Amino acid sequence: MIKFLLSIFIAWLLYKLVFDLLIPGYKVTKQVRRQMSDMQDHMRQQYENQQGTPGNHQQPSPPPEPKKVDKGDYLDFEEIK
């Protein structure tokens, strides 16, 4: 009788393990992988759209010319002690 009850208890534990842990874990893993794949495809399409538009390429602008300081307006600073 005890062997029978023990085998039923072990079968119930295996059932709970499979249907409450393994199968939901598999489904979640499958869903996350699918969502990651969808996100990667979406990002790839955005990147290709940015690279493919003709007016989007920017040419480097020439460096700004340094400002010329008018020497006539410059006052030399002298420290007074």
Q: What does it look like?
A:
The chain is mainly α. The chain is 63% helix and 0% strand. It has one helix spanning 2-52.
Key descriptive features of the protein:
mainly alpha, 1 helix, single chain, 0% strand, 81 residues
List the helices and strands and how they pair.
Blueprint: H1 2-52
Mean pLDDT: 84
Q: What is the 3D form?
A: elongated
Low-confidence stretches: none
Characterize the main sheet. Answer: none
Radius of gyration: 36 Å
State the end-to-end CA separation. 109 Å
Total beta-strand segments: 0
The number of helical elements comes to 1
Structural class: mainly alpha
What is the beta-strand fraction?
under 5%
The level of helicity is 55-70%
- In N-to-C order, the SSE pattern is H
Short description:
The protein has 81 residues and is mostly helical. 63% of the residues lie in helices and 0% in strands.
